[in-house]
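Action item from last week, closing it out:
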Amino acid sequence: MPVSRWNGLSRRMALGLAAAAAAPRLGSAQRPVPVDVVLALAADGSGSIDDDELRLQRDGYGQALSSPEVLSVVTKGMHGAIAVIYTEWGGPTSQHVIVDWTLIRDEPSARGFAAELLARPRAARGYNSISAAIDFCVRHIETGPYRGLRRVIDVSGDGPNIGGRAVEAARDDAVAKGITVNALAILRPGGQVPARLGQPLPDYYREAVIGGPGAFVEVADADRSFADAVRRKIVTEIA
């Protein structure tokens, strides 16, 4: 057999063997990565949140995820890792991924997530479609690269649902898929919800927003800083 033909055949054989060897790795890479908790953070980026408050939320979540309390709970899990995505929501057509799915298992990965969170520009516009935010997070949880022993959506906001479909319907659809929805009420002076005849915001969130096993509402107000409330909330969610 001529040398040139042999060399060509050898190259084709080598390529074929390399492809065969790579196939199992490609298939393995496509399988969901197991974690203890898949956590979708849905932060209020609507028109009622000014730039300082937006940064307060981002900084609070970043501090919480990289805190010793949260990291201690993470490392004690079965898989020793959680997967987190950070989204911000506004009107019914304004939901945005600020930091995509990130595997957090130690301080460097948590601090990297926090740094990326603070570096990203504002994106959401419009007013208070909590229902669209829940639907948005459900889609990302269902199609994301991680599979958790628990799946949680963490909604933070300073007002009721205004646009889009009924928030109760979005909540119920998420719970039917095995996803727990928790909430963090950001209280301003008065802390009332006009849509429910002056009902306090935490009560509104308990009735209309949260759902699933162990669902709860945390409160950030004059007595508890946002960062403290977020840290306590995330520890509860992943413990």
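Closing note: Residues 126 and 135 are 17 Å apart (CA to CA).
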